[in-house]
Each structure stands twice: as C-alpha cells, then as structure tokens.
C-alpha cells in the first residue's frame, strides 16, 4: 500500500535507540532500554524485565527455536515485536499441581504437561496473544524474533538493569 | 443561570449576544471564551487575576481531561491552570504549580466533587466546540472551526467513549476490535501498517479461549490522538496503547510511576519538575525503546509523525498515597 507516511517499527536487525538528554536529573530514574537491544543480548526465551511496577512486569524475550512449556496462575499477554512465532496452547488437566493458585509470574510446566490441545496461534509483528490462566504454552520461532510479555515478576524473571539501561 | 446536566448543576450564563458562547462558573473560577481565546478568572490575595489560553489549545486539553476521567494525578492545561485527581474529588488550580504565582500568594485551588467538575467541563466543551473542530484530532486532520463566533457543535467528536477492554479486545463480551465496518478506517498516517491477522487454529470447544489480534492494526485504526485505550488487563496491570501526533495537549503530572514502550516511530518527551516546571530531562524514544516516567515529574510529548505508544499503568488505588507519603521512591527500580 502506498503512503506518503512511512511508519517505522524496529526489529532485531534494524533498530535505532533513542536518547536521554539530562538537564537536572539522574538517567537511572528512567530505566531506559530498548527491547531489540535487550533481545539481541539475551539467551533464547530468557525473561528479561524491562519495566516493573510493584510486582507487575513487562518482560522481553528473545524468540529463537522452541521454548520450554510455561504456565501461570493468572493471565499473561504476549506481543510479538518482531519475527514469526507460533504459540501452542494446552488446557492443563491439573493446573493447580503445575502452578499453585497463588504463584506469581510464570513457571516451567514440565517437558510434557498433561492436558488437552487448545490450539495454536501463528503471530507476526504486532500481533498480541492471550496466554490464559489454566493453560500451558510454548513458543516456536520460525526465525529469531522478539516478544514483549505482560506478566508478573516470578522466579524466571531476570533483572539486569545495569546491563540494559542508560546510566 | 443554572443549567442541569447529568443531574449536577452547571452554572452557565445565557449565550453572549456578541459571540454566541456561554460563560461558566466553577466555584470561584470563571470561564469565558471569545473568538480566539479562553479566559479563566479568579481572585487571590485581594487581587483580580486572569489567564488566557488559545481556544484550540484549551479545548484539546479539556477534552483529554474529560475523556480520561481526570486521569492519574495532574492534568496541567499549561503552566498555570490544571486539575489534580483525588479520585472522587478533583482539584482545579490556577498558579499553584507556577513559581511566580505561588511565591506571591496569587494562586488559587478549589476542590470539587468529581461529578460537578465533570459536568461543568462537559458543558464547556459542548458549548465551545464548534462544528468542524475535533479536539481529539491532529491539526492536519481537523479544520479551523474552533475560530470565531459560535457555530454549531461537534458532539459526535467530543462524546466519543474511551475504548477500555475488560480483558482483551475481541473476546466474547469484551471491547470490539476496530474495522472499516464499525467506523474505524485506517488512519492516513498508518496506511502502510500491515492489516493481517494472527492465524488462529482453535481445537473444538476452545474457540473462545484461544484468542489473538493484530494490535498494530488496531492502533492504525485509532481515530484519536493522545487518548489511550486499554488493550489488556492483568489484575491492576493495564496496557494502554495510544496513537500520538503533534503535541500532547496537556502536561501530565504523575502520581505514580508509569512506563512507556514506543511501538513505532518517535516521540520526544520534555520532563519537568512536577511542582515547579523546572526542566529535568528530555527523553527521545524510538521504536522499541522503554522508559519509566517517575512519580515526581510532569511530562509533555512531541510526535512529528503519528506514532504508536504503549502506556503501561498500575491502577492500584493506594499508589498515590504510597508515593505522597514517601513509602515508595518516585523511581521504579534501583541499580
């Protein structure tokens, strides 16, 4: 589609970081990072926290290959920022035994969690998928990509602010 | 004259013979407009004071305040006037956060029941927004109908409802997705944004649980600027994406930390001290950038091309008090 406007999205291969111009402040106050930069330096499916607000987090995941199975005791949401990612969903037979009800954040759900196939969602850039409570899920990336997850800080969350932020 | 609006009294004058506009009274504050300007009047320290704002800027600012339900914290229309949300009550102030007015005792703040100030603001917007002017639109998209004497209205524009999902748009019983046939064509500035949808293959019985949509397509069809919708809800964690063009019509003063994820293009944020307006930083965000907006700042964004911004909020009700009392630091993380 032709347009006089050009919308600029980022990708693992092509992104430009913004900048902080400090006048009377501490750059750390802004915890400024970039999801493509973070994913470029991360191990596949490492859950790197890029935003945190009293236990709630946004995590950046480098999507590469097939992930482990995950589950959470609450909904989660994933936005594919770059790449071609299939999400496989499984309705857990015994969700409370995989992830106890008060657990915060996602947990590993085992190599072959017991449950019924719910379906798959194939996502490209900009697509958002619901990872519902009571389900296990895993990602399969057809090429390296980037996922932004809305979730809760959990045991798998990785905080390495000094490595990812302007200081 | 007292005009009834939404079961709350609004104090409004008859229409001016000269301009056609009504004047309004909110507590001790007077609001009037003429062909070009809005005038806000008050008294402090035995002195009569007035403040003047271009009518288009005023209407854009007031439109956000109304649409956001006074939002989180402070909505500064400009360096002199604005509102502070006390959640159930709302302060309207003049000069309170301006060093000169404040130091000379020329500031005034009054607190109103939220319904009263909302009814007054809606009545002002209704009366002062002329046909052909959309306060939600970018300047390139709307006319100069805000100029001149009263000329009709634009209720279709100013009565838009903010689109907030309960869980995620497109789920049964939740907010609708945007499409041509429900009045959301692709915006001119996002004509190059792919309109494909995720390929969903749901097993029988799971059609309503396996769910996905194209968020960037959804945003490309937003008909407003600087007006966040809600696109996913995880308890108190709200993703509030929005499309931005030209200048954020207000300076938002935070009562909690919020976070921005720049999804496309670029926004420049001017960051100021929340109480004095003194410059603190400029944050230039490009696609993929993530930045916190601390709880002790006010900020205003500039977007030279319509861009997509994910505003991430924590709606926990206790947060303003936790920051105000110092129990929480104004920044989100120490490292």
Brief summary:
The complex is a heterodimer of chains A (167) and B (335). With 167 residues, chain A is mainly beta. Chain A has helices at 35-40, 95-98, 161-164, and strands at 19-22, 33-34, 47-53, 56-66, 70-72, 76-92, 106-108, 115-123, 127-131, 135-152, 157-158.
How would you describe this structure in keywords?
heterodimer, A: 167 residues, mainly beta, Jelly Rolls, nine-stranded mixed β-sheet, 11 strands, 8% helix, 49% strand, globular, B: 335 residues, alpha+beta, twelve-stranded antiparallel β-sheet, six-stranded antiparallel β-sheet, 6 helices
The count of strands of chain B amounts to: 20
How big a fraction of the residues of chain B is strand? 35-45%
Alpha carbon gyration radius of chain A: 17 Å
Estimate nothing, just give the exact number of structural domains of chain B. Answer: 2
**Sheet of most strands of chain B:** 12 strands, antiparallel
Q: If helices are DSSP runs of H or I spanning 4 or more residues, what is the number of helices of chain A? A: 3
Shape of chain A: globular
- Summed over residues and divided by their number, the pLDDT of chain B gives a mean of 96
Count of beta strands of chain A = 11
Classify the helix fraction of chain B into a percent range.
10-25%
The oligomeric state is heterodimer
Question: Which architecture of the largest domain in chain B per CATH?
Answer: Sandwich
What's the order of the H and E elements of chain B?
A: EEEEEEHEEEHEHHEEHEEEEEEEEH
Write the element-wise H/E pattern of chain A from the N-terminal end onward. Answer: EEHEEEEHEEEEEH
> What is the end-to-end distance of chain B?
58 Å
Which architecture of chain A would the CATH scheme give at its second level? Answer: Sandwich
Average of pLDDT of chain A = 96
Biggest sheet record of chain A: 9 strands, mixed
CATH fold type of the largest domain in chain B:
Jelly Rolls
Greatest interface: A-B, 75 and 76 residues
Write the layout of secondary structure elements.
The complex is a heterodimer of chains A (167) and B (335).
Chain A: E1 19-22, E2 33-34, H1 35-40, E3 47-53, E4 56-66, E5 70-72, E6 76-92, H2 95-98, E7 106-108, E8 115-123, E9 127-131, E10 135-152, E11 157-158, H3 161-164
Parallel strand pairs in A: 3-11
Antiparallel strand pairs in A: 3-4, 4-10, 5-7, 5-10, 6-8, 6-9, 6-10
Chain B: E1 2-5, E2 8-12, E3 24-26, E4 29-33, E5 37-44, E6 47-54, H1 55-67, E7 74-76, E8 81-85, E9 89-94, H2 99-103, E10 108-113, H3 114-128, H4 155-158, E11 199-202, E12 212-214, H5 215-220, E13 232-234, E14 237-247, E15 251-253, E16 258-262, E17 266-273, E18 279-286, E19 289-293, E20 297-314, H6 319-324
Helix pairs in contact in B: 1-3
């Amino acid at each position: 589609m032709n347009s006089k406007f050009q919308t600029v999205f980022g990708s693992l291969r092509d992104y430009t970081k913004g900048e902080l111009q400090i006048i009377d402040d501490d750059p750390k106050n802004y915890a400024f990072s970039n999801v493509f930069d973070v994913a470029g330096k991360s191990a596949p499916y490492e859950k790197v926290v890029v935003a945190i607000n009293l236990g709630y987090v946004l995590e950046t995941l480098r999507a590469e290959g097939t992930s482990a199975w995950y589950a959470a005791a609450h909904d989660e949401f994933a936005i594919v920022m770059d790449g071609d990612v299939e999400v496989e969903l499984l309705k857990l037979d015994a969700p409370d035994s995989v992830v106890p009800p008060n657990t915060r954040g996602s947990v590993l759900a085992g190599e072959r969690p017991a449950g019924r196939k719910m379906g798959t969602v194939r996502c490209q850039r900009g697509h958002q998928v619901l990872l519902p409570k009571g389900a296990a899920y895993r990602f399969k990336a057809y090429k390296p990509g980037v996922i932004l997850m809305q979730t809760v800080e959990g045991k798998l969350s990785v905080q390495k602010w000094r490595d990812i932020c302007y200081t | 004259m007292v005009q009834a609006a939404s079961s709350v009294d609004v104090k409004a004058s008859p229409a001016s013979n000269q301009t056609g506009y009504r004047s309004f009274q909110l507590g001790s504050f007077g609001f009037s407009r003429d062909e070009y300007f809005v005038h806000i009047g008050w008294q402090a320290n035995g002195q009569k004071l007035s403040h003047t704002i271009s009518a288009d800027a005023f209407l854009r600012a007031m439109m956000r305040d109304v649409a956001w339900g006074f939002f989180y914290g402070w909505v500064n229309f400009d360096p002199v006037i604005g509102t502070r949300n006390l959640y159930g009550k709302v302060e309207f102030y003049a000069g309170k956060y301006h060093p000169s007015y404040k130091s000379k005792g020329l500031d005034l703040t009054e607190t109103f029941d939220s319904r009263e100030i909302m009814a007054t603001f809606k009545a002002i917007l209704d009366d002062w927004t002329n046909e052909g002017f959309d306060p939600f639109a970018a300047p390139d998209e709307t006319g100069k109908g805000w100029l001149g004497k009263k000329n009709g209205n634009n209720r279709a524009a100013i009565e838009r409802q903010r689109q907030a999902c309960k869980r995620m748009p497109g789920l049964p019983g939740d907010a609708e997705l945007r499409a041509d046939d429900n009045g959301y064509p692709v915006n001119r500035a996002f004509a190059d944004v792919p309109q494909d949808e995720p390929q969903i293959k749901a097993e029988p019985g799971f059609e309503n649980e396996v769910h996905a949509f194209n968020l960037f397509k959804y945003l490309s069809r937003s008909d407003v600027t600087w007006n966040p919708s809600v696109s996913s809800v995880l308890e108190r964690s709200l993703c509030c994406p929005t499309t931005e063009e030209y200048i954020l019509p207000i300076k938002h003063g935070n009562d909690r930390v919020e976070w921005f994820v720049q999804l496309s293009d670029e926004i420049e944020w001017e960051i100021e001290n929340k109480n004095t307006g003194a410059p603190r930083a400029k944050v230039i965000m490009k696609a993929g950038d993530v930045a916190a907006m601390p709880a002790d700042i006010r900020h205003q964004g500039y977007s030279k091309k319509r861009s997509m911004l994910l505003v991430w909020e924590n709606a926990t009700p206790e947060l303003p008090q936790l920051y105000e009392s110092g129990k929480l630091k104004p920044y989100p993380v120490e490292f």
